[in-house]
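If it is no trouble, can you show me the amino acids of a protein and the tokens describing how it folds?
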Amino acid sequence: MRLTLRQTVLTVAVLNLLYFGIEFTAAVRAGSVSLLADSVDFLEDASVNILIFFALAWTAARRARMGMVLAGLLLVPAVAFVWMLAAKLLSPTPPEAASLTLVGLGALAVNLTAALLLARHRQESGSLTRAAFLSSRNDAMANLGIIGAGLITAAYPSIWPDILVGLVIAVLNLDAAREVWEAAHDEAKDTRV
């Protein structure tokens, strides 16, 4: 049975919200910049998908405006990264390598599931669905980085692999925000014609 787009984004929202709680708790316990940035990203993804669920019933013009709002939401993990980075630099203790790796694997499973579910619908509803798909795709790539940082930190205890992956997560979200903003802007122009 194929899920409708609304059912898909609601399913993805629930998956993201559940894993946010798991990853946030693990990030605090492990002292990890990348896990914290990624956990905030799970919360942001849950919010985005819930907003998309409701916005799909709206007109094209309202969906385009919501796409612009969602582009702004994609910036939230970058802000979380800067906050945690400052804390990590003030207290440079390497994160728990096992937590990075195991929680990263769990996050990868959730994000791959979300990306696969959303890939079936990524051409529907313009910037809204594009925002959800890009977010899940970027998160899966970031999770591979978190897993790698965990493995490197296990072999060579350091704060830097975690910080570098956190930086990559922030950059991926900035790029996704730009893409969604451009798609929403184009949709807004199309609705005015």
Notes: Helices lie at 5-30, 33-55, 60-73, 76-90, 97-119, 126-155, 160-192. The longest helix spans residues 160-192.
